[in-house]
Amino acid sequence: MTDFDAQWSVPGIVRTMFPILLVLTAIELGSGLVLDTFEGTLLRYPSLLVLVPVTIGMAGNLGSVLAARLSTAFHLGLLSFEATDDRLAGNALATVGLAVTIFPLVGAGAWGVQTALGGTALPLPTVVLVALLSGSLLAVLAIVVTAVTTYAAYRFGLDPDDVVIPVVTNVCDVLGVVVLFGAVRLLV
Amino acid sequence: MSLREVAAEAYRESLPVLALSAVGGLFAGVVLGGMEAELRAVSGLLVLVPALLATRGNVYGSLGGRLGSALHQGLIEPTFSFDDERVNAAVAAALANGVLVSGVAAVMAVALLVALGRPVAPLGTLVAIALLAGIVSGLLLTVAVVSVVFVGYRRGLNPDTLAGPVVTTTGDVVGVATMLGATRLVLALGGG
User: Coiled-coil regions in this chain (chain A) (predicted)?
Assistant: First the structure.
């Protein structure tokens, strides 16, 4: 079997992907354990439960959008890994801006749908504040994780497209749950 | 480009996709919020939520990426038939990966919770839920990804930029909804 055929055979694809999926699943189970630890709080306040998938998803998305932009800039030779690099700093700034725009809306949305459907036990400002605090922290963490992973891929001679997005997305997923847990502990 | 221009461009280009996935995530959250009873009935189910949702994104996002690259290279045609061996192989491999890794996630979750001395539902219950949810969500997401990538490509859109948002918006909703359905079915059949 040639390399080309292996790329398009079922065993070939499964052999390439399955080990990566196992590692990513093990990482995600870590965030599952964090959720399990504060299951009592989540079940008492369903508007926080509503926030779980969107916080996890947005954290991963912020990271993967940034990673995709940085790796494109890197391929085009536009990126240097210095704190003074405008492209790096500008994209980082945009990530924070995006988080600060979207997370409060997500908090209000979670509160709104939960109020409409089942009644909420938490006041609106608390849920919005939990979302905003989680989102701002996650933006900063997503920037650090993405910059470090992209730089590591570059140093090890790997194509950032192959490595950075899955790593960043899944690491940010876990951080999403940990940060949400922290914000809930602090504010609820 | 100045710092301000770079930031403004990145913000403008990313906001619609992120807003769309936020809406999808909220829908998934509503379903999860309505799963209180099932989460209480099946200890350990919540541990599986991030792993199963991430698997949907990782497996079917990669299927979208693979089909997108193959369309660009002219390796496959954007037509819906069961004759294309490459499309068939890519879909079969994605389904196999998605279902297998869901089952393994359930086994790993039970092992972890037992090791930590935390309460957990029987292994059979969680594995049955994970496999069932894996199969149904896999079929739904395959249809969604293949349709959007093929139809988008025929209309002159870049499939690379389509697959990601489709999977992030539909993946979480489909992932949580199929977990809920699978849990209800398994509980009704006497598991738990």
Answer: none
- As given in the structure block, the two tokens for residue A153 are 């891929």
Tens digit of each residue's pLDDT (9 = 90 or more) over A9-65? 899 888 888 888 999 899 999 999 999 999 999 999 888 899 999 988 888 888 888
Distances (CA, A) of B185 to A145, A173, B48, B175, B181: 40, 28, 17, 15, 6
Q: How far is CA B12 from CA A72, A168, B3, in A?
A: 17, 22, 14
CB neighbourhood size of A116 (10 A): 10
- Chain B positions touching A60 (Cβ under 8 A) are 54, 57
Instruction: Give the start-to-end residue ranges of the domains of chain A.
Output: 31-187
Residues of A in contact with B1 (CB under 8 A): 86-87, 90
Which pTM was predicted?
Answer: 0.87
Interchain pair B176, A18: CB under 8 A: no
Check: CB of residue A98 under 8 Å from CB of residue A62.
Answer: yes
| B27-64 confidence digits (pLDDT tens) | 999 999 889 899 999 999 999 999 999 899 889 988 98
**Cβ neighbours around B159 below 10 Å, total:** 23
Q: How far apart are CA A119 and CA A111, in angstroms?
A: 9
Q: Do B21 and A57 touch (CB under 8 A)?
A: yes
Instruction: Locate the chain A residue with the closest alpha carbon to B104.
Output: A22
pLDDT digits over B81-135, tens only? 888 889 999 999 999 999 999 999 999 999 999 999 999 999 999 999 999 999 9
CATH code of the region A31-187: 1.10.357.20
For B51, the closest chain A residue by CA position comes to: A28
Q: In chain A, which residue's Cα lies nearest the Cα of B92?
A: A10
**Distances in whole angstroms, Cα of residue A150 to Cα of each of A95, A161, A182, B36:** 16, 9, 27, 39
**A36 and B172: CB-CB below 8 Å?**
no
Residue B8 lies in a domain: no
Look up the domain containing B139 and give its range. 24-188
CA nearest to B170 within chain A: A57
Residues of B within 8 A of A20 (CB-CB) are 58
Q: From the CA of A156, how many Å to the nearest CA of chain B?
A: 23
